[in-house]
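Researcher: Structure for this, please.
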Amino acid sequence: MTEAGGTGARRAAFAALGRQLFPVRIGELARSDDGIVGFFLNDDYTRFHVVDKVVASAALAGGRLSGHLGLLGTVPEPEPIDHPYLVLEDTLLIRPGDTVRLTVLMLPAGKLHLTSGVLPRKALELADDWVTPGLARAVPSMRVGPVLVDPAEIRLPNVASLGGNQLFTRRTGPLTWRDDPILAATMNAYLPKMPHEIQEGWIRVAPAEETEAP
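Model: Predicted structure, token format:
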């Protein structure tokens, strides 16, 4: 308050600060609790910003009919990603007072870490009420087929990693689906009662039924 220049000097300092660009980073690979994959900036969904530029330089090649075959323990050489959809710079330059709209792609159980040049690192996480109901309805599935099954009694080997209450889900028409519980197949050989059909679909876990609160 007593510095030379008074109010005019403070206004000049605030104006100079408003012109200063500060680096800001969204997400942090070094933290195991960070769930950020990347983000879109200011509702521009034509460019995807990666969480860290190291991801682009250390990525392994992948895609349809491609993979990495070799001895166990060998590490394939990374192939740098070069695609116009990806923004490979992980730092934003923002002025104080600017509003930046982000659409963040993240794991629901993880946190968002924001690192800037002027404030301590900030960590945010989603409230359980926002994500738990949706995650409860997300169930794993595994594609199978074609398999020879009895349409009246679906007998297939259960997938050990999926647990109980497994269903066989498949299309019955262009817009219709059918779910049937899976009767665990045994080693016993028997003749079918009805003609079998060749079908294909997904083995998945039946979601827990919602119960009404008392």
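Researcher: Any notable elements?
Model: Helices lie at 6-18, 53-57, 128-137. Residues 139-205 form one domain.
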